[in-house]
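Training component of the fellowship. As part of building independent skills, the fellow (R.M.) carried out the full modelling exercise for a liganded target. The chosen ligand was flavin-adenine dinucleotide. The inputs are recorded below so that the supervisory panel can assess the work.
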Amino acid sequence: MQKPDLVKETHPVDYDAIIVGAGPAGLSAGTYLAQARYRVLLLDKESFGGQIMNVEWIEDSPGLAAPVSGAVLASGMVNAAEQCGVHMELGEVVEIESYSGCKSVRCADGRAYTSSLVILAGGLRARKLGVPGQDRFDGKGMIHCTLCDAGLYAGQEVAVCGGGNAGIIEALYFANHASKVHVIEAQPGLTASAALQARAYANPRLEFRCGATVVEIVGDEFVTGIQVQNAATGRKELLNVSGVLARVGFDPASGYLEGLLSLDDRGGIVVNHHAETDVSGIMAAGDIRSESPRKVAAAVRDGETAAMSAQRFLQSLKQEV
Ligand SMILES: Cc1cc2nc3c(=O)[nH]c(=O)nc-3n(C[C@H](O)[C@H](O)[C@H](O)COP(=O)(O)OP(=O)(O)OC[C@H]3O[C@@H](n4cnc5c(N)ncnc54)[C@H](O)[C@@H]3O)c2cc1C
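Fellow's submitted model of the complex:
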């Protein structure tokens, strides 16, 4: 099948579409457009596969008779995109400029590309605790990726801040390696689903402090503990841990988009039912969009919706000739 050369000739851009974020949303959008023979660049700042690469088991996605490994699911999506001809590069996008008929995408290392359109699929970023010590011990006991790092804490005590779904899923994974996992939750009780709470309370390696918050990360060169304060009594307690994971919420990874397009009050990208933003030629899909259900199936569907709009947009450029 021929590439849509007319689009290339009339708009001398590097790619027809640039997609920011190689998670389920970006991969499904890229696969769809590459299957339609458009030239697609997929950029990701970390690795290809997105958040599910770091999730041990995907448990509640339609069509799954049993939990499937997040890494296995992600690899399947990455392979499908590659086989369809999606060009993938590592690079953190830090700026997008929108001109009529052309978008310019700039990466942190200075690389820049042009395209006819952009699909934003950057997902979420873990919220910081915002307490003394968090930045100082980044990479020195402050944990970002449970699946990658849990083995480093074998036989040691760690803390997971946040008793919601993500916190409990990751605390349970840590319990396979660590001697004890302290779960700290600001609310009076865990906020994870009932099924996850049942698994958490049944695990002898998990210990819970609800109605309490972490007020400081302490240590020398590496983390040696956390100060936890009980909300009701105000009493502080030092827990000796060598690793800390913050799972106190996620925010859309949209900081670099402020001023370019409309964001909601939580930073989610505002889109219509066609995944279009209020900037012509920029679509958004997956967890990064406003009101996303934050599930794999929803991200994949969003990616396809964005790709359908992208295809219509590219066809309209052709007709302008
Ligand atoms: C612990 C945990 C367990 C979960 N379990 C389930 C489950 O069982 N079932 C389920 O359906 N869902 C689950 N989810 C949710 C699921 O992971 C997400 O809904 C899904 O990954 C969203 O896909 P996405 O493509 O929108 O974003 P992501 O998967 O987050 O991918 C976004 C990608 O964009 C990249 N990126 C971000 N900003 C930039 C930038 N500026 N430049 C370049 N790249 C960038 C990131 O590196 C990332 O790879 C879970 C999530 C967590 C945290």
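The panel noted the following from the submitted structure. The CA atoms of residues 250 and 309 lie 27 Å apart. The two ends are 22 Å apart (CA to CA).
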